[in-house]
Structures are given as C-alpha cells and as structure tokens.
Amino acid sequence: MSTGAISEECVYDLDVDGVGEPVRVAQDPLAKLSAGSGTTVWDSAIALCGYLMRSMRSSPRTALDLSAGTGIVGLTLARLGVERVLLSDIPNGVPLLSHNIEMNDLADRVSALPLKWGDAGNTHDIRQAIDPIDLIVASDLFAWPDLYLDLARTIDALASTTTTVLLAYEERNPAVEGGFFRMLHKKFAIREIPIEALHPEYRSPELHIFEARRRATRSDD
C-alpha cells in the first residue's frame, strides 16, 4: 500500500494523558486508501478516547474496536497499556487501519481484521483472533438504521458476561437512534456515562457514551 496516498494535512494527532507518545492517525476523507469508504476522526471517537484516559485505572487485557474507522480509539487503548487490541472494519477499511497501526509502531500488540455486521464468518474470525474480549469500543455507528439489528447481533455474538461495551455517538436523531438501544437492551444492561465523568476537553451535550454489559442469562457463559 502506498502511504503517499494520504497527505500530511489528513493526519490527526491525539495527545494521550500520562503517556509520552501521542496517537497519530491518517484520515482518508476522499477514500484514497479505503476504496470508496471515506474515513475521518469523529468527535465522538475523541470523546471516547478522553473518557478512557480518565477511567482506565487498570487496563483490560484485550479489546476490540468495532468498525474502527481510523482506529484512533483502539490505538489509544494500546497506548494506555492494553496488551492485545484488534481493530475491525469493513474489508475496504482494513488497509487504512493497517497503515495507522504501522504509523504508531504498535504492530506488536494491535492488528486489524475485516468485520461486516451480521457476518457469522467474520465474527468467528474475530473470536478466533481475540478471545475472551474484555472490552468492546465503538463510536458513531448509528447512521444506518437499517443495519441496527445486524449491529446488535454482532455485539451479542462477541460479548460475554465479562465484556464491557462502550458506545459513543453524537446525537443527531434521538428517536431513531433509540431504536438501536431498545434492541440491545433485550440482552444487555445499559447505562449512560455521566457527562461529569468525561474528559473536560471533550464534553458536549450532544456527545454521549453508553456502557453495556450482558445480563447473565446465556447458558454458555
């Protein structure tokens, strides 16, 4: 892959509190690397990174960044000490993720795999690569209501009763976005992280982070 396809103007740097090295990610708004799937850093991803900087008193051992985009949240987790991080996205998005892993010199603890919501084969590959999953993170995944059921099923397939799921998003249409949470609530207990717990530099009334945990009802847990 040609790293020259991304200009310096499209690179985003995030300082990670308490860590000497920042996270540096290439953005691909014109889809030069991602073959038709433009990718940028969203405000909700930065808010989630900021929350993780403040809340991670002890690092989970493994983490999955679901539909990671640039991978900034998962890469931040690696900077914060998570031992094994997997970045996932649609197949077209994996080259950008791999590029950003290399740019941060984190290939020893971070990797990327394709994951299409609702695809049982992809889900199996994720579980083979990283199991158990201690933490699932995701940001701004609610733009496609027709895919809410597949997203909920994917989280259901990947999360155990010991998995923490953190979902960040920028509120755009609460009536529609609430439909996803109603689906997820059938199997998961969900709470919103208070705005006071968010990083003071990345707080906004429109930015929300929810924590979800599976209820202990599955026979295989």
UniProtKB/TrEMBL annotation:
It comes from the Eukaryota. This is Uncharacterized protein. InterPro entries: Methyltransf_16 (IPR019410), SAM-dependent_MTases_sf (IPR029063). It comes from Plasmodiophora brassicae (Clubroot disease agent). Keywords: Mitochondrion.
